[in-house]
């Protein structure tokens, strides 16, 4: 295997690509997002109809009816115009019944029970003053309430029995998404109209509910600090979870993705790193972070996800001798068992590392050359990383300059023996110590930014008890990584 590795490295260095440039930092541009793109367009008839119905469900019956009048010019045919008119007439009629009930209560001084956000209020109404209800004496000392606080729920309770018109109760149930609306015995001309309209009204109301939540996001504007950004991200997540199949969401997916990117970018900061890295994160006085995974928790293994091939030239040679099929990571109490042939990466990403270490138990002896595992730091992509092994080997590969450095050794190991290998960057050198003794070194010429992971190829298993890396987190690249991860969680 050693000969294979040396041959692969020699071939790599011989590649004719000296003019390649090292990859640049790809910081996402801070393009301002226009929150108006979340709002309902002027020509979206069905959704604007739904928004009017949402206002009705909030108790604003008169305003909702006026909105439907304004939508009439958008109707493309007589059927669409007639639907708007029928719904307008229903809202006007309900508003009239509500007014009649209020006048009767004013005349009799009989109290009404209002459901306010923080309490129930049993109180009499003295008069109606525009959009306000003037209240009688009450313990809370409230002098007035908005007319909209006489909600559709209260209207349904106070509706005379029988109702002035038979369609009123099932229509109120329809607006409340009450399943009893579908079971109502709808007979008579106006009831037949409601039966014919019910599916469209229900669909438009659902659209309106989604659109109103998007309007609320737009009203927030773009967040300006980390806390408000996290609140906005949570609000967006809840909205998408509730309404992921909505046509309103589907038509705004591009805008929602760009909005999410703007929010996520603001929500990310140095304080986001521990959550993103997982494992244990210990801030150091000089601004560095010591990231350690000790595989004590089941979720530790899930930090490492399968990656694109990270060392294709080497694996091509290895596959000529063996083709492991059982490729997986297995979490054990206090250890990670790495099986088969593959590459994995963790979310940990540094702009500069100062040290890294690995410890565990050897599962093979010096006579068994079938177990190959390289711990990768400063991993920028295929054949572009710093790698060291549990026996102290040290290799750097840089596809940008087609160059490599390696320091291999012949340490004798035995199955069951515990190991600890430590990589250090200091005084212009990269060194690896095994069991406390320095066994490998190469010049420190390789950019040390990148991710952390491992490359494996063997028919058995490799045991890793702990992996630790110390360095400066790469906040700019992490911001992009964080955004991509959060967008995936949102389904955008």
Question: Overview of this structure, please?
Answer:
This protein is α+β, with helices and mostly antiparallel strands and 492 residues long. The protein has two domains: 36-212, no CATH class; 273-473, Jelly Rolls (Sandwich). 38% of the residues lie in helices and 27% in strands. It is built from 15 helices and 19 strands. The strands form three sheets. Strands 6, 7, 8, 9, 10, 11, 12, 13, 14, 15, 16, 17, 18 and 19 form a 14-stranded antiparallel sheet that branches. Strands 3-4-5 form a three-stranded antiparallel sheet. Helix 1 packs antiparallel against helix 14, helix 2 runs antiparallel to helix 3 and helix 3 (61-71) runs antiparallel to helix 4 (78-108). It is elongated, with a radius of gyration of 34 Å. Residues 9-29 have low confidence and may be disordered.
List the helices and strands and how they pair.
Elements: H1 2-13, H2 45-57, H3 61-71, H4 78-108, E1 112-116, E2 119-123, E3 125-129, E4 132-135, E5 144-146, H5 152-158, H6 168-175, H7 180-183, H8 189-220, H9 226-243, H10 247-251, H11 253-267, H12 273-277, E6 280-283, E7 289-293, H13 298-301, E8 305-306, H14 312-318, E9 328-332, E10 335-361, E11 372-381, E12 384-388, E13 394-398, E14 403-407, E15 418-426, E16 429-434, E17 437-443, E18 450-464, E19 466-473, H15 475-490
Antiparallel strand pairs: 1-2, 3-4, 4-5, 6-7, 7-19, 8-10, 9-10, 10-15, 10-18, 10-19, 11-12, 11-18, 12-13, 13-14, 15-16, 16-17
Helix pairs in contact: 1-14, 2-3, 2-8, 3-4, 8-9, 9-11, 11-15
């Amino acid at each position: 295997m050693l000969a294979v590795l040396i041959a692969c490295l020699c071939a790599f260095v011989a590649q004719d690509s000296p003019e390649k440039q090292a990859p640049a930092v790809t910081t996402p541009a801070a393009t301002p997002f226009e929150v108006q793109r979340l709002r309902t367009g002027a020509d979206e008839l069905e959704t604007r109809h739904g928004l009017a119905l949402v206002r009705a469900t909030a108790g604003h019956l008169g305003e909702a009816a006026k909105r439907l009048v304004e939508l009439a010019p958008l109707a493309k045919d007589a059927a669409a115009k007639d639907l708007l008119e029928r719904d307008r007439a229903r809202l006007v009629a309900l508003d009239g019944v509500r007014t009649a009930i209020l006048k009767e209560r004013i005349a009799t001084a009989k109290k009404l029970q209002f459901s306010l956000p923080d309490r129930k209020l049993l109180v009499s109404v003295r008069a109606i003053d525009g959009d306000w209800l003037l209240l009688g004496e009450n313990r809370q000392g409230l002098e007035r309430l908005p007319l909209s606080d006489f909600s559709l729920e209260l209207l349904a309770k106070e509706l005379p029995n029988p109702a002035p018109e038979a369609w009123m109760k099932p229509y109120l149930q329809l607006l409340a998404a009450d399943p009893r609306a579908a079971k109502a015995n709808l007979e008579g001309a106006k009831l037949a109209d409601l039966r014919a309209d019910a599916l469209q009204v229900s669909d438009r109301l659902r659209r309106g509910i989604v659109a109103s939540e998007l309007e609320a996001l737009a009203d927030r504007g773009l967040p300006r600090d980390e806390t408000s950004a996290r609140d906005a991200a949570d609000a967006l997540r809840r909205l998408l979870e509730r309404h992921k199949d909505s046509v309103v969401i589907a038509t705004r997916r591009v805008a929602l993705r760009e909005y999410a990117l703007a929010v996520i970018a603001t929500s990310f900061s140095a304080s986001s790193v521990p959550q993103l890295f997982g494992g244990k994160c210990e801030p150091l006085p000089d601004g560095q972070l010591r990231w350690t995974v000790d595989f004590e928790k089941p979720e530790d293994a899930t930090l490492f996800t399968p990656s694109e091939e990270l060392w294709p030239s080497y694996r091509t040679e290895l596959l000529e001798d063996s083709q492991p099929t059982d490729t997986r990571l297995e979490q054990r109490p206090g250890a990670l068992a790495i099986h088969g042939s593959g590459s994995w990466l963790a979310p940990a990403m540094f702009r500069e590392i100062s040290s890294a270490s690995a410890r565990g138990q050897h599962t093979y002896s010096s006579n068994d050359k079938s177990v190959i595992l390289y711990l990768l730091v400063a991993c920028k992509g295929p054949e572009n990383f710093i790698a060291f092994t549990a026996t102290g080997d040290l290799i750097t590969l840089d596809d940008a300059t087609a160059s490599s450095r390696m320091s291999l050794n012949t340490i004798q190991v035995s199955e069951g023996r515990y190991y600890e290998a430590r990589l250090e960057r200091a005084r212009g050198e990269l060194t690896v110590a095994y069991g406390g003794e320095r066994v490998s070194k190469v010049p420190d010429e390789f950019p040390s930014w990148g991710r952390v992971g491992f490359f494996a190829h063997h028919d058995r298993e490799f045991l890793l008890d702990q992996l630790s890396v110390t360095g400066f987190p790469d906040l700019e690249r992490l911001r992009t990584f964080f955004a991509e991860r959060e967008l995936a969680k949102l389904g955008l």
